[in-house]
Amino acid sequence: MAGQKELVQVVAEQMGVPIESVTVIDRFLAEAGLRTRAKRGRGYTPMTYQDAANLIIATALGGGPKDAVQQVTGYRSLAARRVAESAFVSACGLGDTFGMALANMIESVAASREEFSAHEDAPNHMSAQVILYGPDPRAEIVLVRAVGVSTFEFGPMFSKPGDLQRTVHFSQITLGFVGEAISADFPETVPNRSS
Question: Using CA atoms, how far apart are residues 167 and 151, in angstroms rounded to an integer?
Fold first, then answer.
């Protein structure tokens, strides 16, 4: 299982953000209680999928490290609203909140590596895309499976009126590498995103 340094390393490498920035973001999250506190001294503290979800949210939004706590609390608590394409899939199918759903996706993508790595023409192919909207927090997780597309929506349906809109995307690539780092099967060296 990945410790704090390994989690920071894999998030920085997969998202293309300087490790120094992610380290500072991680420190602010830990101080605010949004990341498992590392043990003092040489103690090893394994990170959780929720720790990873919080670090990914803050890193993806790209605000200053001091904004990380506010951003994570704003996005992780977004309630599941609906699945856009189907009334037959529970809006809470991934989790009651965006933070919970993202943590569950990090774990699921790593556990279903074969499906998420399969060519898009393969019958078992799956893919995922996470979209964060701002400045008013809203989020979507788009899950593509053989049975079709499911767009899990979190937060209010519409943003407040205003001309400024921000959209951030990342995919199962980040979710998979981070999930594998958290799982017990974490390799000694983290593959570079260009590999």
Answer: 16
In a domain, 191, yes or no: no
Number of domains in the chain: 1
Query: Is residue 48 one of the residues assigned to a domain?
Result: yes
62 or 57, greater pLDDT:
57
- The whole-number average pLDDT for the span 183-191 is 53
Q: Which domain holds residue 166?
A: 4-182
- Closest of 62, 3, 71 to residue 36, by C-alpha: 3
* Degrees, nearest 5: CA angle 42-180-31: 45
Record the pTM: 0.89
Residue at 58 is within a domain:
yes
Q: Which of 52, 24, 61, 7 shows the shortest CA–CA distance to 170? A: 61
Pairwise CA distance, residues 122 & 181, whole Å: 26
